[in-house]
Amino acid sequence: MNITALAPEHADALIEFFGRLPDGDLTFIKEDVTDPEVVRSWAEQPKQQWIALVDDEIAGYVAVPTLPGWSDHVGEIRLVVDSGRRRGGVGRALATHALKEALRDGRRKLVVELAADQEYALAMFGSLGFSGEALLRDHIRDRDGELRDLVMLAHLVDDNWESLDAFGITDELGVK
User: Fold this and answer.
1) pLDDT in tens, 83-141
2) What b/e string do you get for 4-31 counting C-beta neighbours within 10 Å, with b at 16 or more?
3) Comparing C-alpha atoms, which of 46, 42, 43, 59 is closest to residue 3?
4) What is this structure's pTM?
5) Could you give the CA distance from residue 94 to residue 116 in angstroms, rounded to a whole number?
6) CA distance 176 to 164
């Protein structure tokens, strides 16, 4: 697997990647990734976005947009893994990469929003030092119209140096 920065030449492959996602997955993506122009615009301005390539095919995507204004120290991790590649380390590799890059970019807090029943994703982010920040009941309406709970996890960088050090992230950043 190779993790690389998203670039304009990845636009068509990224459109195809999002096109492979099951309908249920699309519920949890804020933007309409079924619209090629939305995806193409991301590839044209690829700040803080990466893809995982396996055999020259996109296996996953992660972005860390910075929140605006008074929350500009906070990054929001948005992670999507191809359904056929889940539980194979792609998500963890992308999440770890995003965490490192967000720290390099000066973020002091990272958040991720997940459906409360995404147990594997909750456990994976928990193992990376994220913890529960909020539970919003009936906050998501899935494609069948059913209401679901949303969990927000947070990684407070200054409180998590020990776990970052355990993963070797502080070494890669050149800080202790």
Assistant:
1) 888 888 899 999 999 999 999 999 999 999 999 988 999 999 999 999 999 999 999 88
2) eebeeebbeebbebbeebeeebeebeee
3) 59
4) 0.85
5) 21
6) 10
